[in-house]
Write a structure and sequence with these properties.
The chain is 48% helix and 24% strand. The chain is of the alpha+beta class.
Amino acid sequence: MENAKSKYNFGLIILLIVVLSSVILYQQGAFKKPSFETQMAKAAKKLNRQCPQMIDPETQLDSAVVFRDSLFQYNYTMVKMVRDSTDTLGFRHYMKPKLLKFVRYNNELKPYRDHRVIMEYIYRDKNGSLLGKFTFTPKKYLEEDFYRTSPF
């Protein structure tokens, strides 16, 4: 009888240890899904392993960086451009609507839109001089635009 009681106590102690360990692990986040910021950092790291990467004959993706305030930054080089001989205002006017459309409608960016991430694109010339910086906040890329609300 005493042997059965000691086995019962031993089993109870083991159960208590398992329950307490589970509670501690849960509180420490062992069972939690990684935060979206962590997921973004992993995506940037994966992307950076492939960099530098030519996107088209003139555009090279150099790196991706994640900042704490939910900002995902892409850094590009326009490999055939030099700032001094480029119409940078024209470049920015050309690129901004194209990038906004890309941010709004690209399926791969949907998780970023859903989590209201600020997406930033920085373009430099082949010498490293800034050509343009394009920042798209959730307010900008989620707002209804004329083309989506037009009855035509």
